[in-house]
Amino acid sequence: RFYAGGSERSGQQIVGPPRKKSPNELVEDLFKGAKEHGAVAVDRTAKSGGETSKPKPFAGGGYRLGATPEEESAYVAGERRQSSAQDVSIPCSVSARCAEAVGELRSYQDPSNAQFLDDIRRGEVPAELRRLARGGQVNLDMEDHRDEDYVKPKSVFKAFTGEGQKLGSTVPQVMGTSSPAQQAENEAKASSAISIDESEPITNIQIRLADGGRLVQKFNHNHRIRDIRLFIVDARPAMAATSFVLMTTFPNKELTDENQTLKEANLLNAVIVQRL
After folding, report:
1. What angle do CA 163, 164, 165 make, to 5 degrees?
2. What is the pTM of this model?
3. Domain extents for the chain?
4. What class, spelled out in words, does domain 180-275 have in CATH?
5. Which of 70, 105, 155, 190 could be disulfide-bonded to 235 (CB atoms 3.0-4.6 Å)?
6. Side-chain half-sphere of 189: how many Cα atoms within 13 Å?
């Protein structure tokens, strides 16, 4: 309360807003309230290493394997738990700015954390922590860390568990799923489809495919560049619906006029590269 103005016999008494507690006072209030409602102080050194949480061994069923498949045992059932209730010990670190429990920071200034902090102040385990035990006993261990600098814990990686659409590559995949035997058969058919005139000059063309493969085929000098394209599609049927261009190696040049003969395009005994 505050007194304002006037004389010895007159004046105005003003009731001001409650003074905000400092962070240290808030922490002391938490511990004080918890103790008043039955919380017991525990020395840090009194805790044994066995009280820390350890991963639980596998308790399911399985098969006992032997040296040979015939020695494999029948299914061995694991221990069955009578109830899903379990005792849980939850550490709660209290610092000058926030409290941390179950990996979540709870600011003293956030109204959504008021119920959580009030439960602790009344010596009660917050409802959200009681649910973790599924009916078992919950022990909430509060630790004072006001004398330490807060270090943000490393976030635990969690795999994506939602739904979505699988996106494909911006470049169409031309890697076929055909077997090596099927691929060899396709290449043989494509080669036999090229009509070679033995009386005319012949050249060998090496083709480096976009899928990493390599083809070598004989052509006459008067065959056209489009014949090479048709040969590639016959040898790799998966590329029929794929847009690609043919280029020379050095200097790199795209073969845009596919009506040219191999001789006119200076592609005799050349290497041609397929690009998507």
Report:
1. 150
2. 0.38
3. 21-37+86-150, 180-275
4. alpha beta
5. 190
6. 12
